[in-house]
Design goal:
The complex is a heterodimer.
Chain A lengths: L1 H10 L1 H8 L3 H27 L9 H29 L1 H5 L2 H26 L9 H23 L4
Helix pairs in contact in A: 3-4, 3-7, 6-7
Chain B lengths: L5 H21 L1 H8 L3 H27 L9 H29 L1 H6 L1 H24 L3 H4 L6 H27 L3
Helix pairs in contact in B: 2-4, 3-4, 3-8, 6-8
The chains are: A mainly alpha, B mainly alpha.
Chain lengths: 158, 178
């Protein structure tokens, strides 16, 4: 069923137009990578804070409120550029196991980030002293963003 | 006195460099990377992971210097937080990148996006060195207040150069495909 959808999407005038522009995929991928830089660095710094490795100078709440607007905006652009890339090469993405795994992991990271915002809204002192729960959130989301980048690059090879 | 015209001398120099690239890619490890199914993509993954951290951490510093983000924090504490990450990630990206280069050195040497990327990397280094030698030396005077024009120019140039580096880097993958 998905493979039929890919065939249909591939044949749409929009997809055909994008496919005809040789500069389109590398340009959209460049924007995609720049936004990945924003998300991975921001989430990574929050995770280091949660793990008690770095950022001892600032409270977690202050870091989260300064990083979150950037993370959400970058994620919105990532979704938009990701959709454009999928329209251009539907089967390369939707039929690919690395792509599917990546999407699942992105969903989990988004839920963790929402949960973190929620936790801080109800308890501004959350994560002030690294506890096991906060460390697990930090380690889990760090592993996930790394795995997302790995899966993203391997879409090209699987 | 017989003088080799400059253009000809340059051409000879470039051919010699190209020969060096050929010798490099004929070495055993570069050949292994080229012939293996998983080594190249794995090194590329490490390169991408490291470079997103380089670009992300530089972006944080540049946006602070431009007065766009983190205005309430002293410049020095923003840079103290990001610079160790920038340098350690850069070291990883450079090692992985050099290994990728070694596997197809002649192809990359001939590739224009690769040349543009290397040029921009050198320019970004010079830009950073000038900023540290000229403007950052007096950071104590503007740590909290508005940043001086020198810092804004350096940050703007850095942003343009790093976006170009990422773009050219992505282009290399499309122009060097077999």
């Amino acid at each position: 069923m998905i493979s039929q959808f890919c065939k249909w999407l591939d044949a749409t005038p929009l997809s055909q137009t994008f496919q005809g522009w040789v500069w389109f995929v590398p340009t959209v991928q460049t924007v995609h990578i720049l936004c990945i830089a924003v998300v991975v660095t921001s989430v990574g710094m929050l995770d280091f804070k949660l793990l008690g490795i770095a950022g001892r100078e600032r409270a977690l709440a202050a870091m989260v409120s300064s990083f979150m607007p950037w993370i959400w905006s970058a994620l919105a652009i990532l979704l938009a550029t990701g959709v454009l890339l999928t329209i251009t090469e539907p089967a390369r993405e939707l039929m690919n196991v690395a792509f599917r795994t990546k999407m699942l992991m992105v969903l989990i990271v988004v839920m963790i980030l929402r949960r973190l915002e929620f936790a801080l809204r109800h308890n501004p002192g959350y994560g002030a002293t690294p506890r096991l729960g906060a460390r697990l959130v930090g380690a889990g989301s760090l592993l996930l963003v790394v795995a997302i980048v790995v899966a993203g690059r391997w879409i090209a090879y699987l | 006195m017989d003088r080799v015209p400059l253009a000809h001398a340059l051409h000879l120099r470039m051919m010699a460099l190209r020969d060096t690239c050929q010798q490099l890619q004929d070495l055993s490890f570069p050949s292994q990377i080229r012939e293996s199914d998983w080594l190249f993509p794995t090194l590329e993954t490490v390169h991408v992971l490291a470079l997103v951290l380089v670009v992300g951490s530089i972006l944080i510093a540049d946006l602070r210097l431009l007065g766009i983000a983190n205005r309430a924090r002293p410049v020095r504490s923003v840079i103290a937080e990001t610079l160790p990450l920038t340098w350690s990630a850069f070291a990883v990206a450079a090692v992985a990148g050099s290994l990728l280069f070694s596997s197809k050195a002649v192809t990359y040497y001939d590739d224009w996006p690769f040349r543009i990327k290397m040029l921009c990397l050198v320019l970004a280094g010079i830009n950073m060195a000038c900023f540290h030698a000229l403007t950052y030396r007096h950071v104590a005077q503007w740590d909290m207040g508005p940043t001086p024009i020198g810092a804004r120019v350096a940050a703007g140039l850095s942003l343009i150069l790093w976006v170009t580096i990422v773009g050219a880097g992505r282009w290399i993958g499309f122009t060097t495909r077999e």
